[in-house]
Amino acid sequence: MSADHDLAYVSIAELSDRIQNKDISPVEVVQATLERIDRLEPQLNAFNTVFADQALAEARQAETDIGRGTYRGPLHGIPIGIKDIYECGPTTCGSESLADYVADQDCTSVAKLKQAGAIVVGKTATYEFAYGFPTTQSYFKPTRNPWSLAHDAGGSSSGTAASTAAGLAYAGMGSCTGGSIRWPAQACGIVGLKATYGRVSRAGVYPLSWSLDHTGPLARSVTDAALMLQGCAGHDPLDPASAKVPVPDFTAKLGQDVTGMRIGLLRSLYEDNCDPKLLGPYNAAVQKFADLGAQIVDLASISLTQMQAIEWPGLFADCATIHVNNVRHAGDKYNPHAKLFVAYGLLVSGAQYLMGAQARAQVRDDLIGALETEVDVLMLPTSGFQINTIQDRSPGPSIVSKSFSVYTPIFNFTGLPALQVPCG
Q: Is 191 domain-assigned?
């Protein structure tokens, strides 16, 4: 195995120790990362923009600072990717309509990560304005899965997932309105963390839905995801939804014994609607937790049959509110799929929107009630179908309508944190 490959797949936790101890310099790390991007990016299409010169300049500054004893923490000198809906240099949102837009300042979460010493090597590919999945309808070329170039990388945070999985970045930031951090993380075999609503600022992140948008990191390990969250979490007065609460040490409880932990399952939600090739590894993971001493609890009393009524009307209406004027004035630069989202949203009635809000409140109360009284965590599949090839991107309608609309969005509706981890 090449030295380039070995370095590319070192964890942030290990690499940060080597950087702090001056066993390797940020310049060496960034140079190796950029060389790997040069070699693999033409096959993957994971980046919309690469900041080679800027990244090297920041790496030299990091090397100087660390040499003088100013070490900022575990992200100092670490190359990361940022989804191209975060304001940070050229910000296209994957759309021709913003092909020439350059942000005049970094959004809050990127500024926090840079303050922690992280080095942004590029803006990663996204479906246009983060509308759904996959990125094949973006203004840019489709992002390919690093484990099989014929397959999609998931979406909408496809570039962050693909670049992290391929060793073109050590981690990155994504956004999630219904599953856009966790779906691509599953597709690329990495960790995806949708943070708690209000934990990470959304200021300067192009919105899709005011009420459902979340942000969070993608990484190759849970520890690395926790380190990324540590770097970007915190209150921000520029985001009205930002929670004014202390930021804990997200790594403090990693590695603890799970004996006695109560893990809640929603079997009625997925047992009949999940591809057996995915359900098998999931069930094996459940059994592994049981073998380690966790208590498995079936939450049969919670009904999520109203999920469709919650998701689509509210999401489409929010999208229309945000994009309708732009579509009217620059509709020729929106792809047809994105324009359909806006058109559907304009047809949503006030009654439909209110019914969705009421159903959402009921789901939130049911799940939070279960977490307060019956279980400590919920565990369910990330999606019900295997990732598709670039040429054949549409899973069966019954599976899509159920798994796409239920497995991941419930955590956006409730604002609860959600973590995708590989188990296959």
A: yes
pTM for the full model?
Answer: 0.95
Catalytic residue among 109, 157, 180, 209: 180
| Per-residue pLDDT at 396 exceeds 50 | no
Q: What is the pLDDT of residues 174-219, one digit of tens each?
A: 999 999 999 999 999 999 999 999 999 999 999 999 999 999 999 9
Which residue in the list 83, 112, 114, 123 is annotated as catalytic?
Answer: 83
Output the domain CATH number for residue 75. 3.90.1300.10
Place of tokens 């489409």: 316
Instruction: Please write down the long-range contacts of 17-23, taking CB distance under 8 Å and 24 or more positions apart.
Output: 19/66, 19/76, 19/77, 19/78, 20/66, 20/71, 20/76, 22/66, 22/67
What's the total number of domains in the chain? 1
150 lies in which domain range?
3-232
Instruction: Decide if pLDDT at 404 tops 60.
Output: no
Distance CA 173, CA 11 (A): 16
Asked if the structure places residue 355 within a domain, the reply is no
| Token pair of 342 as six digits | 């806006």
Written as six digits, the tokens of 176 are: 């999630």
Cis amide leading into 138 (omega within 30): no
Catalytic residue (one of 156, 157, 175, 403):
156
List alpha helices for 9-129, DSSP H.
12-20, 26-44, 52-67, 108-115
Spatial neighbors of 144 by CB under 8 A, at least 6 apart, are 43, 44, 45, 150, 151, 152, 153, 162, 390
- Concerning whether 2 is annotated as a catalytic residue, the answer is no
Active site residue 83: yes
Q: Is the pLDDT of residue 403 over 60?
A: no
